[in-house]
Amino acid sequence: MTLDVAADGILHFEDIQLGMSERMGARVVTRAEIIAFALQFDPQPIHLDETAAKASLVGGLCASGFHTCALLMRLLCDHVLLKSSSLGSPGIDEVKWLRPLRPGDTLSMQIETLEKRVLGSRPDVGIAKIVFSLINQNNEQVLTMLTNQLMRLRHPAAHAVPVTSERAAKNSPTPSVFDEGEAFLSSADGNHFEDIVVGDVRDIGSHTFDRDGIIAFARAFDPQPFHLNEEAGRRSLFGGLSASGWHTAGIFIRKVVDHRQAFQRDLIARGKTLADWGPSPGFKMLQWPKPVLVGDTISFRQKIIDKVDLKSRPERGLVLSQAEGRNQRGETVYRFSGMMFVSRRQARV
Length: 349
Known about the structure:
Elements: E1 21-28, H1 31-41, H2 45-48, H3 50-54, H4 65-79, E2 91-97, E3 106-118, E4 125-135, E5 141-152, H5 165-170, E6 201-208, H6 211-221, H7 225-228, H8 230-235, H9 245-269, E7 282-287, E8 297-309, E9 316-326, E10 332-343
Antiparallel strand pairs: 1-3, 2-5, 2-7, 3-4, 4-5, 6-8, 7-10, 8-9, 9-10
């Protein structure tokens, strides 16, 4: 992808070139901002406490994976999106957290465009599939992200592109974890990998998004106009001032951590041993089907969908989950397929 644009100085869909890549930006990450993000969105010991982090798999204080994603978003805004006709993103296909982001690391961003097409339903809008990489000062990849970016055309197509049956099938309804009925746990002690039951469903909390919170997050990580200004929001595809998708993801992670820590406090009170949860190697299919607007209350639910034995880590397993967030109107605004390393009660032989 190159950023050569026409005389108007604004990057449009036509300006995105396939097969080209570009590296840009330089952002030093501080200990203070790692801890500040963790306190607000992901208060796990590995992001807050040097001693606890050194004793963990990550071997030292590191940024939340979602902080890393938010920092990528800020680099993308500063170097691309704020001089473009960006219309946001419907979601992320996959994120891989390849190594911890440490205090003092300097991040740059690599961009490569894999494919692009005009939307069948909107001849004035195109979507590009792009790989982003965050690279540290040692030229090591910290994160890779396969994502989808919507952008206006400078010269809209004369007619809509037909929607093929294959593409239509991809847009078929996705099963909802809210269709499972009441949330339930098969065991009150479902803590270690062996105890976790596939099919269990947890309600993990809700959050009401207010104007000030939406704007504060956007100023820090995603300062696109439709996240900062009511009028720009009304003119956008979202129809109003909307939360950054990464803000919604951050709130989801906070609810997951709060729920897990409350569960762990109960286990301690009952004299149970605690499993070690985390870190996560990444996630797949993070989707934002509808915008989160000012005043929306989002309720989150999570379902365990699979467990994977790991030959390389006999003391741990990988737990896969599907999560969803719904607003007060019953509309799905967030979907997420997550994965997490969880310690075993006894290592596999």
